[in-house]
Fold each of these.
Amino acid sequence: MKQFGVVTINTCNFELDQLFNQDFDYSRDANVFLELYIQDSKKNLINVPVFISNFRNSENEYPNKPLDYTKSKMVRRFFITETISGVTTSGGYYQGKTPEYIRLASLVKLTVQLDSEVLETIRRPYLFVTYDEKEVALLKR
């Protein structure tokens, strides 16, 4: 259990060559959508909104730059790795083709802030995610 009101930073790093080892199946082991919840003191689950920093909408605009907690586009689901969009041949995903590119979360940060207006209360936490694309041929296998 984390205590709030104190500054705490926890970090962890994963190397891509460890994430995508020889046994990694691009169609089976990726493409899982996740949802994050926190549990309050009454044991209720509260969904955590996800802020995707480099989200681009259908008008080719980046509505999440800069971050504005009240105006930015938040979502509920996120992924760690995504390989479907990197398969460039028609029907290739269903044929088990290896993608040329993968999309992965390069930065994931859970932000919890104290509410400056209500004593001993936190604002709703949010998850900050940035995605990058990597060429599969450049990953160590």
Amino acid sequence: MTVIEWGRTLSVLAGVLWLAGCSNGRGSLEEPPARSAEPEFSIGGAVTGLVGAGLVLQNNGGDDLVVSSDGAITFSDPLPQGATYEITVLTQPAQPAQSCSVSNGTGTVGAADITSVTVTCDPAASDSFSVRGTVNGLLGAGLVLQNNGGDDLPIATDGDFSFATAIPAGGAYAVSVLTQPKNPAQTCTPSNGVGTIGGADVTNVIVTCARDTHTIGGTVSGLLGTGLVLQINGGDELAISGNGPFTFPVALASGALYSITIASDPANPQQSCTISNASGAIGDTDVTQIAVSCSTVGHRVGGRVRGLAGSALVLTLNGGNDLELLTDGRFTFEDTVPSGTHYAVRVKTQPAHPAQECVVENADGTVLDEDIGNIFVRCATLSFAIRGTVNGLAGSGLVLQMNGGFDLPIASNGSFTIATDRPSGTSYEVTVLRHPSNPSQDCSVAAGEGTVGSADVSNIAVSCSTKQFAVGGVVHGLLGTGLVLQNNGGSNLEVQSDGAFVFPAIASGSPYSVTVLTQPVNPTQGCTVVRASGTIADAEVTNVSVTCETSMFTVGGRVEGLAGSGLVLRNNGTDDLALDAAGTFTFGTAVASGGTYAVSVAVQPIDPLQVCTVADGAGAVTSGNIEDVVVTCTTIEFTVGGVVSGLRGSGLRLQNNGSGELAIAADGSFTLPVSAPAGAPYDVTVLQQPERPRQVCTVANGAGTLSSGNVLDVAVTCAGD
């Protein structure tokens, strides 16, 4: 009986005895004493490290608790506050055997559950066992074994081995190969390597090692014929029917030597095959680097070139064998063409400087049993067009010229092409032979000269611009200021004096029209334009004529109050104007703008005699007729009077024309109070004779007609008491 089995038997017997001690003699347990009503608290904690089975814990020597795995534990019987507890291990676990210990297992119950008890289980030292075995057939180096993915164990030779780490009873083991041996390469395989530890060491693990075998092979390229046979180590043969990978059917052990040779070369077509990497020793992988290259016996291909003038002619053979030719003569491609195969000679790059086109005759065929020498390459220099564009052309008659001889009339804008092409490598020069007119234009050529290359010349640019010509002429007779001429209703030109004038230039073919925008003043003048309009041709316009004449204005006004006749007005001392009635008047001679005028009365009117005065009668003529001269006429009146003599009385009264009384108080001169105009009659009479003393007064010279002065000779003589 094992120690574990004895432990289990003793545990069962102890339990039976404990139950018997608790019996009441009637086959049943004693009834527990009545519990107090005070609060009770559970006792517990946690178990860690438990692997085996059969762990039994006790509290205070009873209340057994069977634990089957790690985790929290709680005893079934709670304890009141103040009670003591003691946790012990009643039965240690087995399968595998472990030793469990208790910490925080004693104490006094407080006012809360006890949860701090810790039970830790460790493997029992006496229950761990070794894993051992034997290695057979080991030839190489570097074999490393493992147990349970670790505990690495290097193995150098055949024989026994043992892992360093023991495994507890009931634990698993798994022996594997971490590193296979090399030199030679081997594959080692464990048997009996996986299981569970019982009650003793494991000793039956067997690791068997055997040499690796590897295939021999490689790749065949260039094979066209049939009958190729390879041989390995002078024995096994392998027939090869086509290009690609091959492998000998017999594998060789790692470390063995190999040598590959050609037993038979291919035919139809006949070929020669060579081997690279043909021999060596088998390593730890298949041999795949053997290279068999076959080439067919070939012939050269060539011929003759004629007419080559340019450089960089490149021929190609079958699309890949390039040959550059620099001069006429014979040529031969460097690479040969296998017998029985097709050949094709083509021009890969045509020659340049000058550009040429070369064609190949007898270019295709099949190589038989001799070199090909009848290929003929014929080269000819290419010609290219000379082209360009014209822009800005508005006139007609433009003619371009190339190299001084090839003329090309141009009628409109756009592209042009010289009629004669130029060979590649030759020079060209495009110039303007004749510039356009109507309108007159200047045309320039850009990129007009150079050397013809390998394509049409198309970048020549002819640009035409219309010529500009000034419009002008001469001004005559200008006295005033402010004269402004205008061209085409928008270009203004102020002219200060007589002489030449010039407007800004305008394009040939454009119309021009010169007008007077502002006439001169001080003095006012009227300017007219001759040859004022036309179309710009191909020269300056210089024949426009502007003639300015000073404006003439009349002098006049109005006469007011004229009653007599014979009034004569005079302007500037010479121009007389007779007037017989009031109203407007105008002198017959006009006065030039800027001139002066001075109106006066040359003859005053008579019948009746009048005096006429002039207002606003003098000034300068500017830009209009003078119409504000005012002549005012006033009629002249005369008095009638005389002398009284012999008067002694009082109350004498005289009168004129039956009115206008005048009292006379004493001798002497008198003047009647009412005057009369010249030509008016007068008649002085005595209206009342004097009294105290009474007298009779008589009038002498008392009647007549007023003429040109006062009447002073009327005589009144008084006589009587």
